[in-house]
Design brief:
alpha/beta, seven-stranded parallel β-sheet, Rossmann fold, globular, two-stranded parallel sheet, 325 residues
Length: 325
């Protein structure tokens, strides 16, 4: 039986702008897009990550800009572009200001430029946290950013992914896997038995690719992983795949919060903040739509996704480079 497409086709344009291009989703997306006939313009404010992007994908045009700052230098790149993929976001910070700059102000700036140049297709990566019970800085500013896109006159699609994992992940599960190489004891906040619905980042990238040449309908889609797994089991599966014997030491949430703050204070590094921990343990279970049928993308089961992540030709290289920073 012939499959019916959900969207009407757009006139094809091979020129794409990706903001936040040097992050986890951006790098995985470019890895897939690079095999197709697209001219990619990558914008990111992280010089180190952009350097990696350029090294891995030399044909991509890379620009280092802070989109929270209005500047014709980056705005002019949007002229004669049909598709803009908006991936940039502030995920973690002990302060409110970076969230406002990167999840609200920069979104306003990009949307404004899209309106100015009459962009025909804006694909905005929001997050499942906007329908979460959480109310931290990340959640509140992502909600505001999504509202800006919804109220705009730019034809758009909003995607709300859940916790993503995969190659180039150095902030979430990918970061945690590096700790397995440091110590056989892993500190686990609480019991670890809070539900996660993990999404393989390549599945999300394929959904974005599906939308590139389709006419947007100003719709919102919850792109949720189809398995419900305890957080501790996510890590156990990774440890098993890495052939590591890890003892998960459960620590009361209040004590774990104190340890997070102490670690950040001593090292000056912030991988997780207490607000993120509260959101993670909030117990959200997100509604699942049949996005496989809508976008013609097959769901990757978590065990299979972890295996792909750890066996990727980019995985070891990326982790090593981040360690050397």
């Amino acid at each position: 039986m012939k499959k019916t497409k959900t969207f009407n086709s757009l006139n094809k344009s091979n020129k794409i702008i990706i903001t936040g291009a040097a992050g986890e989703v951006g790098l995985n997306l470019i890895n897939l897009l690079n095999k197709k006939n697209y001219e990619i313009i990558a914008i990111d404010k992280n010089k180190t990550n952009l350097k990696l992007l350029k090294k891995l994908f030399p044909s991509v045009k890379c620009y280092c800009f802070d989109l929270a700052k209005n500047s014709y230098s980056w705005q002019k790149l949007f002229k004669n572009i049909n598709v803009v993929i908006q991936l940039h976001a502030q995920i973690s910070s002990p302060k409110l200001e970076p969230f406002i700059k990167n999840n609200i102000i920069s979104i306003k700036n990009v949307v404004s430029v899209c309106e100015k140049y009459k962009i025909k297709n804006l694909i905005h990566a929001s997050s499942s946290v906007v329908i979460s019970v959480a109310n931290d800085n990340y959640t509140k500013t992502k909600r505001e950013g999504e509202k800006i896109v919804k109220k705009s006159i730019v034809p758009h699609t909003i995607l709300r992914p859940t916790l993503m994992y995969g190659c180039f992940d150095i902030k979430h599960l990918g970061f945690l896997t590096t700790l397995f190489d440091v110590s056989p004891i892993f500190p686990m906040p609480g019991s670890g038995k809070y539900i996660r619905q993990p999404l393989f980042v390549e599945d999300f990238a394929k959904i974005i690719i599906n939308l590139i040449d389709k006419k947007p309908k100003n719709e919102i889609y919850n792109i949720v992983g189809k398995e419900k797994l305890f957080f501790i089991d996510l890590l156990r599966i990774i440890a098993k795949q890495k052939k590591k014997k890890i003892l998960f030491a459960t620590i009361p949430i209040l004590l774990f919060n104190f340890m997070l703050r102490t670690y950040s204070f001593i090292t000056g590094k912030t991988h997780y903040v207490p607000e993120q921990l509260a959101a993670m343990t909030a117990g959200d279970i997100f509604p699942v739509i049949d996005w496989e049928k809508i976008f013609l993308v097959k769901y990757t089961k978590y065990k299979e996704g972890v295996k792909k992540m750890l066996s990727s030709k980019y995985y070891s290289y990326y982790i090593l480079m981040k360690k050397e920073e």
